[in-house]
Amino acid sequence: MPAHDLDLLIDCARKAGQIALGFSGQTAKRWDKADGAGPVTEADLAVNAMLHADLIAARPDYGWLSEESEDGARRLSQSEVFIIDPIDGTRSFIEGSDTWSHSLAVAQNGQITAAVVFLPMLDRLFAASLGGGATLNGEKISASETRGLTNATVLATKPVMAEQHWQGDPGFKRAHRPSLAYRLGLVGQGRFDAMVTLRKSWEWDIAAGALIVTEAGGLCTDKTGGPLRFNNADPRLNGVLAGGASVHADILSSLAPA
Question: Please, what are the domains in the chain?
């Protein structure tokens, strides 16, 4: 029941924002994860604890995949799974920036059916349900209809622009936002024409934003143009390419063969 799940995700995302805003990113206790996986703060853990308690209490038969929870095999046998990033953009949170977000999604048999990306500092709540469209603060949003890469602005990190990744100069203007979930929301909103990341990407960074893009009329695939499937044993995707249909196709044809 995507619509029913969406209401739950919205309520929990707003509660997550209240918890996170109770911490100062610059003074919150922080640790560095093993294997160079990046920082985590006491705010990440507090948000994760609340989300796990509230979401699983509401849907006890759903599985659980979160950046800040130990993973296990049990979720692989469950048809519905919560896919959660308690704070996407933890480095931005630590720096005192306003572009970090909470990313909450439900996957059913590998397909995202309900999704929320919430930026509490900006009071921006992106939401989508399968077949129900995508919204920003309750207003319908639509992906870009821009044609031609020379007319496009694409969210990407500087390493993505390295010449070995492209068949010549792709010609688009580059922009950047630190949260992958927020980047996808901005593509769904049509503020940017596309986003691309070529590295292996964690499902919890992508799940919610992917549905927001597609329900806004855009396309969201892996870096080869293949479909995204969620709740994998290895919860990493083969890069992500999202955008309006025309720009998505142009980027895909401009990328060097993998």
Answer: 2-140 (3.30.540.10), 149-254 (3.40.190.80)
